[in-house]
């Protein structure tokens, strides 16, 4: 009887054990977006493939909804090895990796296809080396769509409409300078504070893509969305170099393969989410300005390019990005 009871208890304990208890290597991955968001699901797919390819030895536990902190904080924690992995916008790395700033230059990319061709080629490999120098191993480049302006005050149809308005931007110099060049006032703040700040009038609006505009609920307090697509900033999945160096070459290869296979999955989910989010916010009553002359907006960016594309190697990189087909 006692042996039977012990066996039953052991079996119950095994069933109740955490999903990652059997893993030899467990990586904690941070994301600011909610569960179900394309970037979160992309890393989840990476986790599934890593577990399959390693026969259950490597596990990735994804923490969405800023459970481990906002992007700036989690990037720093990943650099120091406190967090193992992070998914963050390239824009959040602008003040850490100088080359990352170049990808945040307004109107640099002509289309999402152009962006993918750049990131999946030799330029993407060069950027990975720049991140490694900052203790981050770039393993995947995800789609972040195009960012556009939204606000609570009025439709934005021309550059002059932005004058004096207060917009939240990511905590990055290039975004602050972009807004200044357009005559607006930039207010850097964490993503989680944007909704209440628009609602209370601390800021007039922000700028982001369709899925973020939707999932954050920002369309509820800022119903004017101008589809100017000023930024196409890729998303990065990076692993702490401290953690990476502790892995065997075989495990590193598993993670690289799993990450690479997750890219087309995330991009497909992104395209689907983008369409669904657009339909949702339009149905809710958001007013979308689609037809604008982008030329004055692009011309206003001249001082931004002059400030950040200074070194010959930066000028060469921007030129090669623009020439990529």
What does this structure look like?
This protein has 325 residues and is α/β, with parallel strands linked by helices. It folds into two domains: 22-143 and 233-277, Bacterial extracellular solute-binding protein, family 7 (D-Maltodextrin-Binding Protein, domain 2, 3-Layer(aba) Sandwich), CATH 3.40.190; 147-232 and 286-323, Bacterial extracellular solute-binding protein, family 7 (D-Maltodextrin-Binding Protein, domain 2), CATH 3.40.190.170. Helix content is 46%, strand content 18%. It is built from 14 helices and eleven strands. A five-stranded mixed β-sheet has the order 2-1-3-10-4, with helices on both faces. It has a four-stranded mixed β-sheet with strand order 8-5-9-11. Helix 7 links the parallel strand 6 and strand 7 (185-188). Helix 2 packs antiparallel against helix 11 (249-283). The protein is globular, with a radius of gyration of 21 Å. It starts with a helix and ends with a helix. Mean pLDDT is 91; it is low at 1-21. This is TRAP-T family transporter, DctP (Periplasmic binding) subunit. Pfam families: DctP. GO terms for molecular function: carbohydrate binding.
CATH level-3 fold name of the largest domain? D-Maltodextrin-Binding Protein, domain 2
Biggest β-sheet description:
5 strands, mixed
CATH architecture of the largest domain: 3-Layer(aba) Sandwich
By CATH, the superfamily of the largest domain comes out as: Bacterial extracellular solute-binding protein, family 7
- The topology string of helices and strands comes to HEHEHEHHHEEEHEHEHEEHHEHHH
The class by helix and strand makeup works out as alpha/beta
């Amino acid at each position: 009887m006692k042996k039977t009871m012990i066996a039953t208890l052991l079996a119950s304990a095994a069933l109740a054990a955490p999903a990652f208890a059997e893993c030899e290597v467990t990586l904690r991955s941070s994301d600011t977006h909610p569960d179900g968001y394309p970037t979160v699901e992309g890393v989840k797919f990476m986790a599934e493939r890593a577990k399959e390819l390693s026969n259950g030895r490597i596990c990735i536990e994804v923490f969405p909804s800023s459970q481990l902190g906002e992007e700036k904080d989690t990037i720093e924690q990943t650099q120091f090895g406190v967090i193992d992995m992070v998914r963050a916008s390239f824009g959040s790395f602008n003040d850490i990796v100088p080359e990352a700033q170049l990808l945040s230059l307004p109107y640099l990319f002509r289309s999402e296809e152009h962006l993918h061709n750049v990131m999946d080629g030799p330029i993407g490999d060069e950027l990975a080396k720049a991140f490694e120098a900052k203790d981050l191993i770039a393993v995947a480049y995800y789609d972040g769509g195009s960012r556009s302006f939204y606000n609570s005050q009025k439709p934005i149809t021309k550059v002059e409409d932005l004058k004096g308005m207060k917009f939240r931007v990511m905590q990055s110099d290039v975004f602050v300078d972009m807004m200044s060049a357009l005559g607006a006032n930039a207010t850097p703040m964490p993503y989680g504070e944007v909704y209440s700040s628009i609602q209370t009038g601390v800021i007039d609006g922000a700028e982001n893509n369709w899925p973020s505009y939707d999932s954050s609920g920002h369309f509820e307090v800022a119903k004017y969305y101008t589809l100017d697509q000023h930024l196409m900033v890729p998303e990065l999945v990076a692993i702490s170099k401290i953690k990476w160096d502790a892995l065997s070459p075989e495990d590193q290869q598993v993670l690289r393969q799993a990450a690479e296979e997750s890219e087309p999955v995330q991009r497909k989910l992104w395209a689907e989410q983008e369409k669904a989010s657009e339909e949702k916010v339009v149905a809710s009553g958001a007013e979308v300005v689609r037809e604008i002359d982008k030329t004055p907006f692009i011309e206003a960016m001249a001082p931004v390019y002059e400030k950040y594309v200074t070194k010959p190697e930066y000028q060469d990189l921007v030129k090669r990005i623009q020439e990529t087909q």
